[in-house]
Amino acid sequence: MERIEQLKEFLRADPHDNFVQHALALEYIKQGDDSNAKYLFEEILSRDPGYIGSYYHLSKLLERIGDIASAISWYEKGMAAAKKAGDNHAYNELQAAYEELVY
Length: 103
Prior knowledge:
The protein is mostly helical. Helices cover 82% and strands 0% of the residues.
């Protein structure tokens, strides 16, 4: 819980810090707080669709909670963003997770 409080403090200083927000979302996942994690990932991606790393984690979270249609949609958006950014590693990771889910 101390790590979460530390990250929240950093966000108070800069509420739009994608890195800190992403880290906080991952901490929420560790604590079993999928609702807050989902909110943070979606906020990051609505503000900055080029923040590629959040697509994978949001999609995996959605997959885990059984929202398969949303997970597929976010995987597809992430693959498009990764392709646009020229990030082949992220694209391949997203594609592999997507294919595992869909096929």
